[in-house]
Known about the structure:
The protein has about 425 residues and is of the alpha/beta class. The protein has 16 helices and 16 strands.
Amino acid sequence: MKAWRAxxxxxxxxxxxxxxxxxxxxxxxxxxxxxxxxxxGSYSDLAPRFPGLDVTHLPGRIIxxxxxxxxxxxxxxxxxxxxxxxxxxxxxxYTFPHESRFSDVAHNSEAATFFxxxxxxxxxxxxxxxxxxxxxxxxxxxxxxQRRSLRMIAGKVLQDQNSPDGVRDATQQSLLDTxxxxxxxxxxxxxxxxxxxxxxxxxxxxxxxxxxxxAARYADVWIQSHVAENKxxxxxxxxxxxxxxxxxxxxxxxxLLRPRAVYAHCIHIDDEDRALLRATGTAAAVSPTSNLFLGxxxxxxxxxxxxxxxxxxxxxxGGGTSFSPFHTMLAAYYVxxxxxxxxxxxxxxxxxxxxHTGGAARALGLEGVVGNLxxxxxxxxxxxxxxxxxxxxxxxxxAASLDELLFALIVLGxxxxxxxxxxxxxxxx
Length: 429
């Protein structure tokens, strides 16, 4: 066992944070050998229960759960900040040309290492990621995540139509490759596989049907795709499926809505779609920096909460403009103020933080596994320095409540505030 003494931030209940100003976090192996949280609480209460325990004392620091990123594209590192008029020209002019490079093993290896470095530097310890249409890209990413003990879920992109040479795959081979990757990686160490249709226009009916059949055969794998991000994209889907009630319902007809299914964006949806998300246990990955950058629209938080479906935050790099969960949380605050209905909502700091930790974990079907520091959770956590920059130090010193402290970090924080990223007792960044 090992312990850390510092201020501790965790969530005893959904979206309700607690800060133990002089806390003790005790970590050790569970019955299966995983490094998990054994105890969390005040130092004065817990220390007598663990006499002689090796304690790392971090005065002035905050230990918090590792962040969970629900939607990110590992091959799009070099696409961040590329100018475009909207989603579809951005894909055509930047994304697809860059992703075509991932047929090269050496390029995959370098990109995977850099990508994981960036996640850990920004405090992201669990991610659901798109690879490319090349199976080698999945092997590189999950292999690197395994080497670094990161909890990573990823999948080979399916796109057998309306895609250029270099990224377009062959229908039957793409499904065979997907099943082989599931067998190779899913459930190995801390890794998971996600069946990954890019989006409806990129997949033939045969490919979507095959993806649904794989999802039925492997009920514990994840599913990930995009839906209702951009109005031009929605019009394209309407042309392809004129009888479908909505873009989301196309995925339903192929058996691709269920628990552990995550759809990025969910911007231009109606209440019937929201009810469908809730009824099927399907989650939304909210990607505010990407939506703002590409001018796609605003996620409607008020309508989502009324409907009661699962959602959490995501960077969506490279449409998203930063790996930083702080930047994502701040952008989500902006989006909430705008929304699709007026008046907008003022998202509370504890709710924003929950959406990028425990709430995202719950949406992924990993509640109680990651995203929190409650007993039984895997021992992934951050050491935050609330004095990382002069302005941040000035602001946090004046915080009169937990909400003020968290909001100061959200507004003024970045990777400099992440002093350490710890996974299973190992400082890795």
